[in-house]
Specification:
With about 300 residues, the protein is of the alpha+beta class. Helices cover about 45% and strands about 20% of the residues. The radius of gyration is 26 Å and the shape is elongated. The two termini are about 40 Å apart.
């Protein structure tokens, strides 16, 4: 402790943060706060006793040493508890956050929000082009009741129209929590897929997709890691553009404009698949990446080499 105190403190602090991620939902911030307060109090009392005993005679020195070690143990536990407290506090959302308004079922609603990224992806869905954007919420109306809400969602619009960063939209559609679907390991070629596992993919993946995917992938957790807690689905006729460049960052808007011009050059001068691959590598734009190529990256575990689009 005396040689490298900062390194030891940092280590136990990180242990506390990791521990916080594994705590069950029944353990609240208040519980951890009380435990932290108790540990700090005990650590302070033991430290004071140990320091006051340093001037004692030699027969009691061994007892003082043991008291100092116990004080260090409680100090380390306090640091761990502080790390856990920090983690739990960082995962508390304001009262108007979208996570407080949604249950397990999808809800029909009128939603107002702002596009926070260029198209994240495009694909054919039931014969129509489906474009996907990051969408920052402002308001929500459900069954005639209006709510002021905040938070990020993923919005999927059946449209070939290209919405831009900073577009403020009024959307009539459905909003729901992401499915907590976990893709398990890839079975061998001659291995049958159990019925339970087939049901896991029934909502949004075919048995073939389940067989071909080799990663353990939790889609809900993947979105929450990006602070996205809901998915909106809407058709083009139910989307109204209210304004452009609404509360947008001019620097980021210019960067997206330059990025779009470079993207168009790829589209004009390079074959589709090669151009889509280069855009994904150089610009972080996966919107035109073919499904087979996307799956190849995912199955080989090399999806991380594709940069992520920046956004605010």
């Amino acid at each position: 402790m005396d040689k490298r105190p900062l390194a030891i403190v940092a280590l136990f602090y990180i242990i506390g943060i990791v521990l916080g991620s594994f705590l069950p939902d029944s353990v609240t911030l208040f519980h951890v706060f009380i435990v932290t307060l108790i540990l700090i109090t005990i650590s302070f009392i033991l430290s004071m006793n140990a320091s006051s005993g340093e001037i004692a005679s030699s027969p009691s020195a061994s007892r003082n040493d043991r008291g100092g070690k116990v004080a260090h143990i409680f100090l380390f536990l306090s640091i761990v508890s502080l790390g856990t407290l920090l983690y739990l506090n960082s995962n508390i959302f304001p009262p108007d956050h979208i996570s407080h308004f949604l249950g397990k079922d999808k809800v029909k609603a009128e939603i107002i929000g702002i596009i926070k990224s260029p198209a994240e992806a495009r694909g054919v869905y039931y014969g129509k082009v489906n474009s996907r954007y990051i969408f920052e919420l402002e308001g929500l109306e459900v069954s005639g009741t209006r709510y002021q809400v905040s938070g990020l969602t993923l919005i999927k619009i059946q449209t070939e129209k290209d919405y831009q960063y900073g577009d403020r939209l009024l959307v009539k559609g459905t909003i729901k929590r992401p499915f907590e679907s976990v893709i398990a390991r890839r079975p061998k070629a001659d291995e049958a897929i159990p019925k339970k596992r087939l049901l896991r993919f029934a909502r949004n993946d075919s048995a073939k997709d389940a067989r071909n995917d080799s990663s353990n992938f939790n889609y809900k957790q993947y979105l929450e890691n990006q602070n996205i807690f809901a998915i909106i689905n809407a058709s083009e006729k139910n989307v109204t553009l209210l304004s452009r460049n609404y509360k947008s960052n001019p620097i980021l808007r210019y960067a997206y404009l330059v990025r779009e011009k470079i993207k168009n050059q790829f589209l004009e001068k390079i074959p589709l698949e090669s151009g889509a691959f280069l855009r994904a590598i150089l610009l972080g734009d996966r919107s035109e990446l073919p499904k087979k190529l996307n799956e190849s990256f995912r199955n080989s575990g090399t999806m991380h080499i594709l940069p992520v689009q920046c956004r605010v």
